[in-house]
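Many introductory courses stop at the sequence. We go one step further.
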Amino acid sequence: MSINMIVPLEVGIACRDLPALRRFYETTMGFSFVSEITVSAEKSAPSGLSADGYTVVRLQTPYGERVKLLAPHTPPPAQVAPAYILDRPNAAYLTFIVADIDAAIAKLLAAGIHFMTGERRVEARPGVYLAFCRDPEGNVLELVEYSDIGAYRPDLKKAGN
């Protein structure tokens, strides 16, 4: 039996500077603001999210996926990011499938984002290009362009295309 999901996936990202990260995802990545909620310690501690409360901002992509930026009222200390993504246990990252990876890289570079893969796309396999970067708080983002998006996601082919 599968879990009956009723809306697109949401991803939560713990952050230290909520206003700055929100600005990045709205301005640079093009997400839309959905809501902002402050949760007291009385509710946050039993949830397992934070001992002393937190604020959550929900942002939405043009396709309906949502990202929750969660900032505890007492931010944890910053951590040094490893050189390689998979050097950290429990590593996770967001993948954005884009139509023009070169344009996306240029936009992020103009916003001051540093790419782990250098300033050019990497061909992972024939017709599949990727680039990895970190958002302003060090969360890993992957950009991917498929030469044949229909082969990657045949379930999304539109009639007549």
